Amino acid sequence: MHTIFLKLYYFLRRQKAIGFLFLLLFVLFGGYFASNIQLEEDITKLIPSGDKQNTLKKVLNNTDFSDKLIVAISSEEKNSNALIQYASQFTDSLNKKLPQYISEIQGEISEEGILEVYNFVYQNLPIFLNAQNYDEIKTRLHQDSIKKRLESSYKDLISPTGFVTKQFLFKDPISITNLGLKKLRELQVDDDFKIYDNYLVTKDEKHLLLFITPEYPASETKNNEVFINRLEQIISELNEKSEVKAEYFGGVLYAIANAKQIKSDIQLTLSIAFSILLILLILFYRRFYVPLLLFLPSLLGALSAITLLYFIKGSVSAISLGIGAILLGISLDYALHILTHFRNNANVKILYSELCKPILMSSLTTAIAFICLLFLKSEALNDLAIFAAVSVVSSSIFALILIPQFYVPTLNTDKKNSNWIDKLADKRYYNYKGLVASVLLFFIIGIFFFNKVGFNVDISKLNYEPEVIKQKEERMKQISGKAANSTYLVAYGNDIDQALSRNNELYQELRNLKESGEIQSFSSIGGVVLSTSKQTQRIDAWEEFWTDSKKKSLKTTLISESAELGFKSESFNQFYDQLNKDFNEIFLDDYRNVSSLYLDDFINISPGFSTVTSTVSFNKANPEILHDLEEKEGIIAIDRKQMNEDFLGDLKSEFNQLILFSLFAVFIVLLIFYGNFLLSVLTLLPIAITWIIALGIMSILGIEFNILNIIISTFIFGLGLDYSIFITNACLKEYETGEPALKTYQASIMLSVLTTLLGIGALVFAKHPALQSVSVVSVIGVLTSMIVALVIQTKIFDLLFFRRKLRKKAPFSISALFDRPGSKEQLYFNKAVLGNYRYKSVFSKAKKEFIKNRERFLKVSEYIGKDDKIFMLNSPYGLLPVFLSLKNPDNEFFVLDTNRKNLNISNNTSQSNVNHLLFSKDWPGDLKQYSVFIIGDRPSQEIASYLKENISQNAEKVIILNVKFENRWLIDLNFEIIYRQNNILIFKKMD
Predict the structure, then answer these.
(1) What tens digit of pLDDT does each residue of 266-288 get?
(2) N or C: which end of the chain has fewer CB within 10 A?
(3) Is residue 392 part of a domain?
(4) Number of Cβ within a 10 Å radius of residue 83
(5) Closest among 705, 861, 676 to 778, alpha carbons compared
(6) Count of CA atoms in the C-beta half-sphere (13 A) of 662
(7) How many domains, the chain?
(8) Residues 6+ apart with CB under 8 A from 548
(9) What does DSSP say about strands 932-935 and 975-981: parallel, antiparallel, or unpaired?
C-alpha cells in the first residue's frame, strides 16, 4: 500500500502544477455542492425511529407549540383601572415600535369580540349543548323559574347597563345560550381568571395577563435578542412612570441565555486554547505554517463528507454536523503523526513504509466504529455516521498525500532534542513500577464501579438557566396559576374530522378525570369544536327535546309572565324563531372565522395529517394517567420529561449494543490487517481497560452520561483506538528491528492529547452545563487512553515480547499454550525457528522460505561436526543459522550479512541472544578459528576474493547453497565434492 503513496508523492513533486490544479478543482467542486446542501435544524431528527417515534415526529412537525411570552402587569393592591391603563399603553408601544418582531398580542377582548362569540354560539346553539344542559333547561321551563328570570332581566334592563342586557334578553329570555358559552371556559387551563373591561385579569384583580407570540421561533436567537432588549426597554420606561409594574417570561429567554453563554464560553476558552496551541505547534515543529497544514486534511475530509451527503441525500442534519465538527479532532491525529515522524526522519520512503499501514488502519477502524451508528434508528445519528466515517478516512488519505508535499522538516537535530515534548516522549513509562501499579489499581477499582455510571435523560439539565430567569419563571407560575406539571395531549388523524372526533372522546375523559380530582385542570376545544358526526348527534338531540308541546307551553308562559312586566307579546319572536329553526352542521372554517376564539392555537391541518391539542395540568406528575390516555387510538402525550426518559432510554440501550457491535467490527478489521489473533486482542485490550477506568472515575466523581457526552464517547473510542494501533506498530517495529521507535510515536500521541485537551478540554472552564459535560468526559477519556497506551499496553508488549527475547525465548503465542512436542518438531524445530519471526512483517515470507528449505537445512546440519565452528555468509532472514543453532547447540556460528534490513531482522530474533550465534555486518577479527564455511547468496566480488583467501588457508568444509555461485576454484584448492543434491554443494578438503 505504501508504494502507491510513494509513487504519488514523486509524481506530485515532479508535476506540482497538476497537483495544485487537482486540489483547486476538488475544493471548487466540493465547495459548490457542499454549499448547496440543505441544513435540517429539526431536533426531532435525534429521536429514534419506531411506530410511536415516527408518530411523535409527525405530531411535532405538524403541531405549533409556539413559545409565547407571558406579560404580567401587577399591582400590590386591587387596582383594575391602573392595570388596564398600563396594558393599553404597553400594547400601543409594542404595535408602534416592535411590529416586525411580534406575530400576535392576546389578552384584550373587544366589545365586538364578545358579541361575535355570543352570536356564533347563539346561531349554532344545539352544537354547544350536551345532555347535562338539557337537564338544566328542563328546570328553567317551569313557570316560577321563568318568572324569576324575567324579573331579574327587567331590573338589569332598567339599570345604566341595560342596553347590553337588551341585546341578549329578547334573543334568549331563559339564557340557554349561556349554557353553551360556558364551554368556552374550557379553552383556558385555569379557572382563576375573568374578563374585566375586555382584559384577562386574575380574580383578585391584582394581575393582568397579556400573551405575545414572537414573529421568530426560539431558535432565531439573534433576532429574538434584539426583540427582548427593546421589549425590556419599553417595560422599564413604563414601570418608571406607573404605579403598577410589568414583567415577562417565555422559553425564548432561556434560548437567548443559552446561545449567549455558549458563544461567550467558546470565544473565551477556544481563543485561549488556540493561542496556546498555535504557539506550541510552532515551537515544536519550528514552522509558522504548520498549524494551517495541520487542519488542511481535516477540512478537506469534511468537505468530502458533505459533498458525498449532498449526492446521497441532498440534506444533512445540522445537529450531526455540529457533533461531527467536534469529532473531527480525531482526523487531526493523522496529520500530527505524519508531521512528527517526518520531523524526526526526513526520508520519505521510511515515512510511508512506517506510517501508511497504521494511519490507514486507524482511519478505517475509527470509520467502522462510526458506521455502526447507522444501526441506530436516529436520522441525525445516521447522518453523523456517514459524515464522520467519510471525513476520517478521506482526512487520513489527504494527510498522507499533502503533508509530505508541503512540510519541510528541519535538519538540526540539536534543536529537536532540546524540546520538552521529545524528552517526555523518550521515556519508557512501562519501566516505572509505581506508575504501572497505579494504573492497575485504578483498573481494579473501575471493575467495581464502571457499571454504576448513570444516564441522565433529562435534557433540561443541559440547559443554562440563569437564576434571574428562573425567578421570573417561578413568579409567573404563581401569578398565572400554571401548574408545574403540564402536559400536551394531541389527538391526530388522517384528516381534521378524524382528529376532532378523537379529541371529542379525549375531552370526555378529561372532564371525568377533573370531576374525580385526578387532574387539576385542562384546556380543550373538545366541548366547542366538534366533529361532523358529533354535531349531527347534538342537532338531533335538540330537535328531539323541543317537541311542539314544549315550544307551545314555553311561549304561553313567556307571554303571560312578561305581560305583567310590560313586555309586548311579540317581544320574544326572535327566540321563538330560534326554537323552530332548522340547524345544520358547521365547518371548521366557520369556527376559525371567530377570531376571539383563538382556535389556531389548538388546531393544525396538513395534507394527510391533522392534529388537535389539549393541555392537562396535574397537581403532581402522574405518568399512569398519561399512559392510560395514550392507550386510546390517535392520542399521544407530549410530556418532555417522559419523552426524554422513554426515547433517550431506548437510545442508551442501543448505544450499549452499538459499543459491543463496533468492538467486534473493529476487531475484525484489526484481524484482517494484522493477520494475527493475539495482536488484534492486544490492540483492542487497551480500549476495554480505558473504558473501565474512565467509567470508574466517572462513577466515583458522580459524573453521568447524557445524550451529548455519550455521543462524544465515540470520539474517545476513536482516539484511544488510534493510540493503541500506533503503540502496537511502534512495539512491533522495535521488536522486529531493534531500532527505538516508541519515542516518535509517543511524541505524536502526546501532541494529540495536548491538542485535544486545549481544544475540547478547555471547555471545562465553560459555564454552560452541556459544554462542561462534553469537556469533562473528553478530558477523562483522552487522558486515560493515553496513560493506558503508554503504560499498560507497552508493559504487556514488554512482558510478552521484549523480555522473552532477552531470555532467548520466542514471543508469547496462544497456539504455543496448546503445543505438544512431537518427533517432527524435534527433527525440524518448526515452531522454535518460526517463533523467532512471529508477529514480524516478514513472518509469512520466512515461514514460506523455511518450509521450502527445511529439508536442505536438515541436510546441512548433518555435515556439521560436534566441534566445528561455522562461518556463514548471507542467509535470508537468518533462517539457516537460527535453525542450525537450535539443531546443533554445541557449535559456534558467526554470520556475516551485508544486507542491512536482513541483518536487523536476524539480529532481533530471540535466538540471536544465545552465546553461540552472532550476526554481524563486519568481518570477525580472526577467520582462522572457523573450519566450516557456509555461503548463502552470491557475494560481491570483493567479499568473494577475501573469502577465497581465507577458505584456502583455514576451511575444512565449504557448503554452498546457491549452485550458480562459481565453485571450480575449490577443486583447485584441493576440495572434493561429497554431496551434490537439492541445490546444495558440500566440499571437503582432501588430506
Answers:
(1) 777 767 777 777 787 777 777 77
(2) C
(3) yes
(4) 27
(5) 705
(6) 28
(7) 3
(8) none
(9) unpaired
